[in-house]
Amino acid sequence: MNLHEYQGKEILNSFGVEIQRGMVATSPEEAVEAAKKLTEETGTGWHVIKAQVHAGGRGKGGGVKLAKSLDEVRDIAGQIIGMDLVTPQTPPEGKRVHQVLIAEDVYYPGDSEPEEYYMSVLLDRAKGKNMIMYSTEGGMDIEAVAEKTPHLIFTEEVDPAVGLLPFQARRVAFNLGLSGQAFKQMTKFVSALYKAYISSDASLFEINPVLKTSDDRVIAVDSKVTLDDNALYRHKDYAAMRDIREENPIEVEAKAVGLNYVDLDGNVGCMVNGAGLAMATMDLIKQAGGEPANFLDVGGTADAERVETAFNIILKDPNVKAILVNIFGGIVRCDRVAQGIVDAYKNMGSIDVPIIVRLQGTNADIAKELIDNSGLDVQSAVAFQEAADKVQAVLA
């Protein structure tokens, strides 16, 4: 589950990470009131207005602006709230902005120049360890830094059984070229950040930039946080942070009825039981000259109601030109799935795209007979290649 910047900062702050303070507003009037309160609490004279959407690159799309007066706070908030923000990480039509973060200005003058760094904590699946990735090139696209100047990216591997050791936090600060008070603040920052990552069951904490202020404070100016959905039962307060307005509406609907669905950009809908078979089916579709329109795992049950729900969700995608149902009957009997498909088809009245059904496993022969004798526009297949050939034929 992805979080907004302000939500990620709330979690960071709860574990002792110093953050750029701010308040959320959903209207220009609320933005002005938030700015007044921030001025009272922090003494900040200028304010940063940040669009709150689940996407990076907001500044490039006009979603992050500096306001030097309350009038500018009102005007800029009015411009950003309600806009369709387009960034490199949004769909072409952009994402609607429903709220903004009014944040304090932390780039104030002092004894030294502010410096920006990049830092993230994530899992290195290949090594089975957590990893802190960091760079002196903060405030930039980390992908561009990795491509053009890979030597400026450092990593620190952390054994999850041992945790982050003090010398590792000090090494991060040393590699960033810090000394004195800034060095101490960075080691404290890194330790608190790693604690937040572990304790919140996150799969990603990314802060770009981490700022060393002109008076040697180290703070999180931004935050991109992804939490592990499978651990949300342990964090009811985090689960309540979910903003379904930022999610694909079809995926939200599928999740509400217990279907594992991921929307893709292809033209062949998939209905499969089991993640491994789903991945193989997607490969099959590509080999047949098509592109998978979705990942859809119906799980171990496939009665008429569940199959009908799955068909309805797949058909919400106007790009779907065919549907491939590929079920292995281990726990669930193939004839039960076949009857579910027939019943669902009849309940829906008509389906305007070709349907290819491959059922293998328990009672597969009975299932094929049910499909072939149904009188419906549904094609049955036995072998993987036969299913691929039929997909290719209907797309031709």
From TrEMBL:
A single BP term in Gene Ontology: succinyl-CoA metabolic process
This protein's pathway: Carbohydrate metabolism; tricarboxylic acid cycle; succinate from succinyl-CoA (ligase route): step 1/1
Binding site for ATP: 50, 57-59, 106, 116
Record text on cofactor binding: Binds 1 Mg(2+) ion per subunit.
PROSITE patterns: SUCCINYL_COA_LIG_3
Cofactor: Mg(2+)
Binding-site positions, substrate: 273, 330-332
Pfam families: ATP-grasp_2 (PF08442), Ligase_CoA (PF00549)
Limits of the ATP-grasp fold succinyl-CoA synthetase-type domain: 2-210
Reactions mediated catalytically: succinate + ATP + CoA = succinyl-CoA + ADP + phosphate; GTP + succinate + CoA = succinyl-CoA + GDP + phosphate
Subunit structure, as described in the record: Heterotetramer of two alpha and two beta subunits.
Protein name listed in UniProt: Succinate--CoA ligase [ADP-forming] subunit beta
Organism: Aureitalea marina
